[in-house]
Amino acid sequence: MKLQIAIVITSVMLIANLAGIYIDVFIKTNPVISPNNDLSDKNTTNITQPLIFSEKEKQRARFPKFDALYEDYIKKHNRTVAKLLNQTTKVNSAKLPKVIVVQSLMYLGLGNRLPALACGFLYSIVTDRLFFIDGFYNFDEYFEKDFDHDWKSVANLYNNSRSRYLHDNNQNAFQLITRGNLSNEEINTYDILFVRTWDYVCAPLISNPNYKEWISSIIPNNKVYNAISQKLLRIKPNITEKVETFINNNFGEYNIGIHIRMIKNMMIGNTITPIENFCSAAKMLMIGTEKKNVTIFVATDNNNNRDILINCLHNSLGSMNDSTKIIHASNDMDVINPIGGNPGTEVEAIVDLSILSYCDDLVVTFGSSFSFLASAMFYKSLPLWGPYVVMPVKNNEDDFVIDKIWLWKATFNEPCMYFSKALLKESDPETIEVFKTNPFWMYYSEECT
Ligand SMILES: *[C@@H]1O[C@H](CO)[C@@H](O)[C@H](O)[C@H]1NC(C)=O
Ligand SMILES: *[C@@H]1O[C@H](CO)[C@@H](O)[C@H](O)[C@H]1NC(C)=O
Ligand SMILES: *[C@@H]1O[C@H](CO)[C@@H](O)[C@H](O)[C@H]1NC(C)=O
Ligand SMILES: *[C@@H]1O[C@H](CO)[C@@H](O)[C@H](O)[C@H]1NC(C)=O
Ligand SMILES: *[C@@H]1O[C@H](CO)[C@@H](O)[C@H](O)[C@H]1NC(C)=O
Ligand SMILES: *[C@@H]1O[C@H](CO)[C@@H](O)[C@H](O)[C@H]1NC(C)=O
Ligand SMILES: *[C@@H]1O[C@H](CO)[C@@H](O)[C@H](O)[C@H]1NC(C)=O
Ligand SMILES: *[C@@H]1O[C@H](CO)[C@@H](O)[C@H](O)[C@H]1NC(C)=O
Ligand SMILES: *[C@@H]1O[C@H](CO)[C@@H](O)[C@H](O)[C@H]1NC(C)=O
User: Fold this and answer.
1) Which residues form the pocket of ligand 6, taking CB atoms under 6 Å from any ligand atom?
2) What percent of the chain has pLDDT over 70?
3) How many Cβ atoms are within 10 Å of 241's Cβ, its own excluded?
4) Fewest CB atoms within 10 Å of the CB: 193, 196, 233, 399?
5) Does the pLDDT at position 2 exceed 50?
6) Would you list the domain boundaries of the chain?
7) Which residue in 120, 195, 110 sits closest to 372, CA to CA?
């Protein structure tokens, strides 16, 4: 007991050296927080009957320290914005609260848009800036909003403000983010820091020696998206209800989720992972489950591929075909979302993501941010391993072959960080060294291209 108190006090003192950062203040005013034990909670549940949705929810990984920080942030945000918008208060444009603004790229799918939001929020808490989202105009249709983060509410006041980009797609301030001081004198001259990216850009910040201790004292390194999204990107009850009904009606004792992405595989050229490979992977996972009722949930990005996969599964399961339920939720994947040309509707995409996240094992497409987002939302704190990833191997310059395959299990569950390889290739040696202090740096380079 005494030892624990001593540890807490020491870390508070260490942190107190660095002024002006939101997490400092939070930790100082919440000193009773115990060390995080999310990772040591090794309660592997022995599934002997199908878990209904509410039981699965009980197993959800929880992040009480992050949740407390989030609640605290909401209060601060509300207070500050109310003051800012109070007509009787004269706004001093030289003294506006500093902000992080994530510019949502609506032509991208959710797999790219949501990770950028989560990381923007992480930036805002470590830099003690307010968090806003610009351009995600239908956010309220899908997600609960605990505070008004619509940039439109306050943007006018910032007409004359200085701004700069932290991330503008592949022009990223990696060196600054990986090892710099995001509140240094120069950065402080910018009221607005923009984040405009389709990448999961939390990873370099987690390596930054100025912030890594605080961040990992609040959120486990391998659950950053999971923790933040449970609050900031909480799915609306009317959508969650659909997911709940679906799971209660369809899930068995062991549930495999398969996500196949074929249409937009821009990151790996014209790569087509043969559907047979996904089918074989599911078959392998079913070894030893003969006495269980298995459900295979299938999410694909077009109807034809889904039909091929379902047929392949039915035909290859042999005697297990009878006890295996093969299901899907989205009906017409040939509908194209006019925004960005993604398949299906956005609400169906959110339902698919959510159902996938409640499966026991995932078989996903290499390089698909949607696939990795589904596993990053994984409901349970254990296992620590991530999804099974199927990828084809090149026979020659442009030929991918069916019988040369990599099937691997990802090291853990976090979204895709496409630029991790560019970061490792193009940055200066010191930045690379620091980036590699993130214990999961290898994961970021294995999961995408
Ligand atoms: C799971 O439950 C079954 C039946 O109750 C039991 O035989 C088996 O040993 C359990 N396995 C583990 C790993 O607890
Ligand atoms: C493991 O998790 C189950 C379901 O959440 C719970 O009922 C049980 O008490 C837990 N066991 C331990 C040892 O924590
Ligand atoms: C606006 O500010 C004034 C002066 O500080 C205060 O009296 C008033 O209650 C505030 N109004 C609102 C709506 O917060
Ligand atoms: C869920 O409710 C929101 C309003 O809170 C609405 O905009 C949205 O269309 C609803 N979605 C569905 C699938 O019913
Ligand atoms: C913050 O403001 C939102 C409205 O933007 C409101 O719904 C919410 O209850 C407020 N929360 C707190 C903790 O003040
Ligand atoms: C800020 O700019 C917008 C359009 O660019 C304008 O409509 C608005 O009145 C300006 N606001 C202020 C406070 O100057
Ligand atoms: C970051 O810069 C600010 C000055 O703008 C300074 O007060 C703070 O101590 C610096 N933090 C670190 C970790 O160097
Ligand atoms: C498996 O499913 C079948 C048919 O749906 C059902 O009759 C059987 O009781 C289930 N077995 C278990 C162990 O739940
Ligand atoms: C497998 O089961 C499905 C029904 O669940 C049935 O439609 C299909 O014909 C079966 N296929 C084989 C090869 O047994």
Assistant:
1) 156, 159
2) 85
3) 11
4) 399
5) no
6) 20-49+237-418, 65-78+95-232
7) 110
